[in-house]
Amino acid sequence: MRRRVSSGAAPVNQGGAMTRKLELHVNGRVHTVEAEPDSMLLYALRDNLGLHGPKFGCGLSECGACTVILNGNAVHSCVTPLQAAVGQKITTLEGLSSDGKPNKLQQAFIDEQAAQCGYCINGMIMTAQALIDRKPHATRDEIKTALEGNLCRCGTHMRILRAVERVTTGHAAQGGTP
Ligand code: FES
Ligand code: FES
């Protein structure tokens, strides 16, 4: 399930920068970043930590390109205030692989050649991973529902669906319609 995270925070400071040192738990490591607490998690991940798996697409919680997993839920990091993520468990695309090797789901995306331009793929994988973590044998309908908020302008939806099903069913699909 995709969730926006609300912090109940004051509006973003429009004047001089009011940064603070904030502790982020990302991909099993603790990082201290200096940033404005009301700024969005996506920017800290990309600009402070150099994690470029999450992409900036719309910045409006419309496309899913920026998706990360926060405490087990797929969230849009472009609208997640940094202070709402402090001390929480954050996983980015980079955190799925180990020893430089893709995990099962990443490998399935490679095997299905699911990426065309690739811009949406971070969000597709992170959203699907959160679903699989929760429901390892999710049905096709459940996968489609989970991915509803992730847009792919290249139209590779069938290959993306087949990639996720490689993991949920344990074998490669023989084709079929979405
Ligand atoms: S960039 Fe976050 S949803 Fe589009
Ligand atoms: S592969 Fe290009 S937007 Fe999905």
From TrEMBL:
Residues 20-96 form the 2Fe-2S ferredoxin-type domain. One of its GO terms (molecular function) is oxidoreductase activity. InterPro entries: 2Fe-2S-bd (IPR002888), 2Fe-2S-bd_dom_sf (IPR036884), 2Fe-2S_ferredoxin-like_sf (IPR036010), 2Fe-2S_ferredoxin-type (IPR001041), Beta-grasp_dom_sf (IPR012675), Diverse_Oxidoreductases (IPR051452). The keyword Transferase does not apply. Keywords: 2Fe-2S, Iron, Iron-sulfur, Metal-binding. Pfam families: Fer2 (PF00111), Fer2_2 (PF01799). This is (2Fe-2S)-binding domain protein. It comes from Acidiphilium cryptum (strain JF-5).
